[in-house]
């Protein structure tokens, strides 16, 4: 697939962990008219830095425009585009759905098929939790619509590059490749 086959760019931005950095980054997007589809930010393994994962509409901006503008910000340390085929992407969804007694077992079964959990139970509603790739959440959300979604909240997408999987070949005592 080429980048034209996707609706969004996923950009990972490593920034200095300081007050106001997120406001400057989101302000840049607003001023330029770039449509942010998803935004998630949290400290990294090194408390001096935060990682901002931004999912931008392909139609609103080219990756080159976004990168050039982001690098103008003082607190930006590193920018990476995370192509869906070369990254691990996850989201969390909480969804409250109507669950009349006749449909409750069907809903529970669907949630289990998707490896989700029921996290709250009411007389005629269930709240479902599902974490996974965005497409998995999309699929369960579509199926839950038939029962009646009361409330729905999804986190912003978080993503990291996939790890390399090259096999290293061991050398025998004689020096021949085994």
Give the helix proportion (percent range): 25-40%
User: So how many helices?
Assistant: 4
Assign an overall shape. globular
The name CATH uses for the topology of the largest domain is Alpha-Beta Plaits
Q: Order of SSEs, N→C?
A: EHEEHEEHEEHEE
Mean pLDDT: 89
Assign the CATH superfamily of the largest domain. Answer: ACT domain
Q: What is the number of strand segments?
A: 9
Which structural class do you get from the secondary structure elements?
Answer: alpha+beta
Q: In whole angstroms, how far apart are the ends? A: 36 Å
> How many discrete structural domains?
2
CATH architect. name of the largest domain = 2-Layer Sandwich
- The portion of residues forming beta strands comes to 35-45%
Cα radius of gyration in angstroms: 21 Å
CATH top level class name of the largest domain: Alpha Beta
Architecture overview:
With 178 residues, the chain is of the alpha+beta class. It is globular. It is 26% helix and 38% strand. The strands form two sheets. Strands 5, 6, 7, 8 and 9 form a five-stranded antiparallel beta sheet that branches. It has a four-stranded antiparallel beta sheet with strand order 2-3-1-4, with helices on one face. It has four helices and nine strands. Strand 6 and strand 7 form a beta hairpin. The chain has two domains: 3-81, Alpha-Beta Plaits (2-Layer Sandwich), CATH 3.30.70.260; 88-161, ACT-like. Chain A, domain 2 (Alpha-Beta Plaits, 2-Layer Sandwich), CATH 3.30.70.1150.
């Amino acid at each position: 697939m080429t980048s034209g086959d996707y609706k969004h760019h996923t950009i990972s931005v490593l920034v200095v962990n300081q007050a106001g950095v997120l406001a400057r980054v989101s302000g840049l997007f607003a001023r330029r008219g770039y449509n942010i589809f998803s935004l998630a930010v949290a400290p990294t393994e090194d408390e001096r830095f935060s990682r901002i994962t931004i999912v931008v509409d392909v139609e609103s901006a080219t990756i080159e425009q976004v990168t050039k503008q982001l690098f103008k910000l003082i607190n930006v340390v590193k920018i990476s585009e995370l192509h869906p085929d070369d990254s691990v992407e996850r989201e969390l969804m909480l969804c409250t759905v109507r669950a009349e007694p006749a449909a409750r077992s069907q809903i529970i079964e669907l949630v289990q098929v998707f490896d989700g959990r029921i996290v709250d139970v009411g007389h005629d509603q269930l709240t479902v939790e599902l974490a996974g790739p965005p497409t998995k959440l999309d699929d369960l959300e579509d199926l839950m619509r038939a029962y009646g979604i009361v409330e729905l909240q999804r986190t912003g997408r978080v993503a990291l590059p996939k790890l390399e999987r090259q096999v290293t070949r061991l050398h025998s005592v004689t020096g021949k490749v085994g």
